[in-house]
């Protein structure tokens, strides 16, 4: 159930960010759901490999290179989901930063609510 809630939250955030950022577009809610699924799969399977392969760069940049990896994941998502477009790398980077920030706020609020109920 928690997975479905996070998926729906990510879908809504993708729609919001596509409205907010001019260089990112999505055709509709169904496409936003596919974007959320594709990002989840790429983050689960590809991101750990990319992080491991770029560990020296990540250490030298004190973790800032992870932002580049997130932008690459966004661009790969745009490649796989044709109705989701990102104009360039910088919009992908901005999209990933804002999406991560919004997800951390929403997911942190969910955990606070769960802790208060216990």
TrEMBL record:
Keyword annotations of the record: Membrane, Transmembrane, Transmembrane helix
Superkingdom, taxonomy of origin: Bacteria
Transmembrane segments: 33-52, 59-82, 88-108
Pfam families: Phage_holin_4_2
Keyword hit for Flavoprotein: no
Coiled coil residues, start to end: none
PANTHER family: SLR0284 PROTEIN
Name used for this protein in its record: Phage holin family protein
């Amino acid at each position: 159930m928690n997975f479905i809630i996070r998926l729906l939250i990510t879908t809504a955030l993708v729609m919001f960010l596509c409205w907010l950022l001019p260089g990112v577009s999505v055709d509709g809610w169904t496409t936003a759901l596919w974007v959320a699924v594709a990002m989840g799969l790429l983050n689960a399977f590809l991101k750990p490999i990319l992080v491991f392969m770029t560990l020296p760069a990540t250490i030298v940049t004190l973790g800032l290179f992870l932002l580049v990896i997130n932008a690459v994941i966004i661009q790969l998502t745009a490649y796989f989901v044709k109705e989701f477009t990102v104009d360039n790398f910088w919009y992908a980077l901005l999209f990933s930063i804002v999406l991560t920030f919004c997800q951390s706020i929403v997911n942190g609020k969910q955990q606070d609510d769960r802790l208060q109920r216990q």
